[in-house]
Amino acid sequence: MSESKQSPKQFLFKVMFVSTFGNLLFGYDTGVLNGALPYMARPSQLNLDPVLEGLVTSILLLGAAIGSFFGGRLADKFGRKKMLSFLAVLFFFGAMGCTFSPTARIMVICRFFLGLAVGGAATIVPVYLAELAPAERRGRMVTQGELMIVTGQLLAFTFNAIIGVSMGGAEHVLRYMLSIAAIPAIVLFFGIRICPESPRWLVVNNRSDEALDILKKAREESRAIRELKEIQDRIAQDAMQKKASLKDLATPWIRHIVILAVFLAACQQCTGVNSIMYYGTQILQKAGFGTEAALVANIANGVMSVSITFFAFWLLARYGRKKILMGGQLGIVCVLIGISLSSHFLEGTEILPYIILSLTVSFLGFQQAAVSPATWVLMSEILPNRIRGMGMGVTIMCLWLVNFCVGFSFPILLEYVGLTYTFFGFAVINIIALTLVYFFAPETMGKSLEQIEEMFHKRGEKSA
Q1: Tens digit of each residue's pLDDT (9 = 90 or more) over 186-216
Q2: What is the DSSP letter of 242?
Q3: What is the pLDDT of residues 269-289, one digit of tens each?
Q4: Helices (H), 79-134
Q5: CA-CA distance, 166 to 170, in Å (whole number)?
Q6: Which of 177, 199, 269, 409 is the most exposed place for a label (fewest CB within 10 A)?
Q7: How far apart are CA 258 and CA 379, in angstroms?
Q8: Would you say 200 and 234 are in contact if contact means Cβ atoms under 8 Å apart?
């Protein structure tokens, strides 16, 4: 089918499918160590202790923090499409470097560079989708990015289990697990070439005719013309100010939005979700499963993450962002307390591994149906157009820094503190986060990006 004959729905699906391969890589590269770590820890391989396990896993997150910060700024300068193409190359060579790393030190270095790509994708993809999507489809399209993240993690868990079991725990099994990430990187590199540039970025760069052509492919013509006018008006107002920079944070209403976005990002990571996505196999081993049984059982976590994300599309469309976020956090608090109590009172029993597995699956149900999609949609919506790339970069950088702290400390806490008190600590943090979301998070459902920006601007003027 030629591009000119595509309906808006088909056009948007193509863009969404291709661009979110960056999210798929995000998911696979963050999830693959879940199964590879037990093999890396062997003396014949990388000989990792709990501290090195945390470092090999979390160094990707530190790279992602840096990649997210610079990724947003570079996307503002060179465009969303060109940066996604570059990130595909970085994903490919990062995956190959990890595959052939002979020592823990080289693995750490390769994982860091892979993290630069992960952070860039985490910043650019939701912005790219939000800027192309009509208001009524924006939540679904941005949430599709979240679906691809968890799909990548499910693929990682599944391939880990297949490779680990079929190869009987061979010493070099981790190399096969790590190499698979090169395949979606190739798909992203060639697929992004048939996708359009962001219409808002084109208008900023005096290419309004191209922007209108793209908008016409994504919605009806009359609406495309009206939205182009809204974008031009907003950019014209922004042009009267200096170019976006960190100095913009001195403007109270902009600073308030960025702080809010950073807070939402931190809340998502403080649920403890990535302790399960990165170390699920180790958690199940700690509860009583053997290595290969834990690899297979961990697939259930990935299946829940993917299947429940489809439910998130319906929830966001029906109930909005804030209610869904709060409901998900409340459910997570209950599950975290359940994990803590179960590991304390049922330690050493045969039933504990199965209870922990059911609770981690329930946890991911609340996380992927509510907390993660609502957070990503809110973050992509509330940042003002003029600083959206930079603001998203700052926000995701903070997200990854929190993620790094959780990822690095979790195996150490698991080893020296145990399941009970580690997950009880997560529960306390989430009770605090839930309270703050209630008082400070906005509702953005059904509003255009320009309307959301105007809402915050007016609030800022009233509070000044």
Answers
A1: 999 999 988 899 888 998 888 989 989 888 8
A2: P
A3: 888 888 888 898 889 988 889
A4: 80-99, 104-132
A5: 9
A6: 409
A7: 9
A8: no
